[in-house]
Amino acid sequence: MTYSGAKLALFLGRELLVILRDDKADIPYPGHWDLPGGGREGNETPADCALRETYEEVGLELQETDLIWTRQYSRPRGLVWFFVARQPVSLIKQIRFGSEGQCWKLMSPRDYCAHPLAVPHFAKRLQEYLDDDEA
């Protein structure tokens, strides 16, 4: 089965980089807090997809070796990959917000998982990572 997209839970220091989605009725989860990532383009790998989308959305150029945790899961439009990367808080100075979304901010991972406007399936994946990380 081919995959449809990839997301990245990007920690800058102890905080999670989140993006407030546009508030448009024609997109999934309008006005919700999202993570960098999106749909696959061409024959790119899941990691390449997550890294490209992160660069397009927040201007941070990460490497595949920065990805420390991954899972794939099934969604209505196909397989989706979920990655985690941990980077130094100093990268905040390099963020260049792209053209998608209303704004970005840092949020504690626990707050994201409990937030009523977190994209539910991303909050669930993040919680799985946090549970693994504590084990």
TrEMBL record:
A GO term for molecular function: hydrolase activity
Record flagged with keyword S-adenosyl-L-methionine: no
InterPro entries: Nudix_hydrolase, NUDIX_hydrolase-like_dom_sf, NUDIX_hydrolase_CS, NUDIX_hydrolase_dom
Entry-linked Pfam families: NUDIX
Keyword entries, A-Z: Hydrolase
PROSITE patterns assigned to the protein according to its UniProt record, in alphabetical order: NUDIX, NUDIX_BOX
Location of the Nudix hydrolase domain: 1-130
Cofactor(s) the protein needs: Mg(2+)
Coiled coil location: none
Family: Belongs to the Nudix hydrolase family.
PANTHER family reported in the protein's UniProt record: GDP-MANNOSE MANNOSYL HYDROLASE, MUTT_NUDIX FAMILY PROTEIN
Name of the protein described by the UniProt record: NUDIX domain-containing protein
